[in-house]
Amino acid sequence: MALLDVRDVTMKFGELVANDRVSFTVESGAIVGLIGPNGAGKTTLFNCITGFLKPTNGSIHFDGANVTGLTTYQIARLGAVRTFQVVRPLKEMTVFDNVLVGAFLKTSDNREAFARAAECIRLCSLEPLQEKPAGELSIGGKKRLELARALATRPRLLMLDEVMAGLTSTEVKASVEVILRLRESGITLMIVEHVMEGIMPIADKIVVLDGGVKIAEDTPGRIANDERVIEAYLGAKYAQRYKQRKEGEALG
Amino acid sequence: MRRKALDKKDVIWLGFVALLALLPLAPVVAANSFHMHVVILILLFASMSQAWNIIGGYCGQVSFGHSVFFGIGAYGAGMAVVTYGGAPWPGILIGVLLAAAIAVVISYPCFKLSGHYFAIATFAIVEIFNRSFMVWDWVGGAMGLDYPLVKEGLKNLMWYDTKTGYYYCALILFLLIFSVVRWLEGHRFGYYMRAVREGQETAESLGVNSTAVKLAAMALSAALSALCGAFFAQYNLRVDTPMVMSLDMSMKFVLITILGGSGTLVGPLLGAAVLIPLQEYTRAFWGGLGGGVDLIIFGLLIILMVVKQPAGMIGIIGDMHRRFFKHKGIAKGDSADGSP
Known about the structure:
The structure holds 2 protein chains of 2 kinds.
Chain A: E1 2-13, E2 16-27, E3 31-35, H1 42-49, E4 57-62, E5 65-66, H2 72-78, E6 80-82, H3 95-103, H4 110-123, H5 139-152, E7 157-161, H6 169-184, E8 188-192, H7 196-199, E9 205-210, E10 213-218, H8 220-225, H9 227-251
Parallel strand pairs in A: 3-8, 3-9, 6-7, 7-8
Antiparallel strand pairs in A: 1-2, 1-4, 4-5, 9-10
Chain B: H1 8-22, H2 27-30, H3 33-58, H4 66-83, H5 89-110, H6 116-134, E1 145-146, H7 164-185, H8 188-198, H9 200-205, H10 210-236, E2 238-239, H11 241-244, H12 247-260, H13 267-286, H14 293-308, H15 313-324, H16 326-331
Antiparallel strand pairs in B: 1-2
Helix pairs in contact in B: 3-7, 3-10, 3-12, 3-13, 4-5, 4-10, 5-10, 7-8, 7-10, 8-10, 12-13, 13-14
């Protein structure tokens, strides 16, 4: 069964239609990528799913329950937790305490929460920085903090909003490793990403938005060949490169 | 585990408390009831400011309305003694509970406002309560409540001969409120309060019901403020609106905490230890003429602090500490930055 089921979600800001009857599903245990050009409505859709915005129309179902119109914290308690594209560290708290706030979602016991926070700090390689005020981290550090903090809540669905943007290719590789490990531990992931090298190889499914409308929902292989997606977003060059790499893998 | 049950800081605190407990035995304090009076006020104002610190410092919701809760506590005790001619205790209990309930009712709409707008709304609330209590005969109106002469002792919470009884009551109040905050600091609710201060939306995205956290922090803060107000009434043997339920009083909650360092455990004590002697000794030296000199000095201190070190005295101490231990810090690898 689908863990997340988005049905005909429309989000209007006055006359501007940011999402227009978008429907898709995220299957339990999968990695689903959400891609599209800037302004396609990816973050708006995230905001609708996580309760930051109430969709004008349509409904969102999480684990069989209708969560449309629930508040952000209620949805987080059900197990759908997000990171922010524009990082939002709790600036004057230390990195460790930031993650600890997340860890306190599922337990009020200090020992358990501290252990969970330490685990997530380690997974996101933040150990050397854990006593620093979160506001002093570099952008890469803040992105990892976003991930560690969301992860500490023990989510069932983790929604990552461009955690790889602005990272070096080594860092992208490290992030990909982390994401794969999360999937192995049973977390379902939904990832908004512009870094195609990051998302295409690991996603089970890609959903493509353009101008607020879903133009494709398919496996990465088929998405790379989809004429509309190439025109709207990927560009012919990337499609070519993706095909060559796939062929290379097939030969090797 | 990162946080032990008893760390170095706690040992220093225990030593400090033991010192305070023995203070009335020291001749310089015992022989002069004015010194004793100053020490009692330091403890009381440190406690009040610490109560404010819960919502204002840790939770980041700057309230200028705390004299309302302080006043409700004072009126609770005062009315039990003066109007109903009994012991103050039931009145104190009712005052504390009522303050918490009123805090929830009036803060709920105010929490829809954020930042400066919240602070402005709380200003208005003090004025509303101040004017209403002034003309409300049941609570004594503009005349206030003057305590009758009754038997001294813990039962009536009144002493006339020496201030030692008051001193120990103030010390218990101080210990109670500081312990509550110390406990909060290390537990989930304390982390949630700070998370709400640093970013309400971020906190919500992590499953924190920020409105509930703010309301609970406000209720606790108001209840403890009311307890301080009750003590203040018992100590002055008088309750009237300008004294307990005014912007002047509200300001003291805020300024002492900010001067000392808001959102820290020691801040309110540091702030009170500076302001209260300043206030009491200038008043003693200059008498009626000197009224306000302390506020002029205090105002200058606040301006200086806001410009030079917004973190308050605790921030200055931190800076000095860092400067002093600079070499050591580098040797330990203070600059170890693992970011790529």
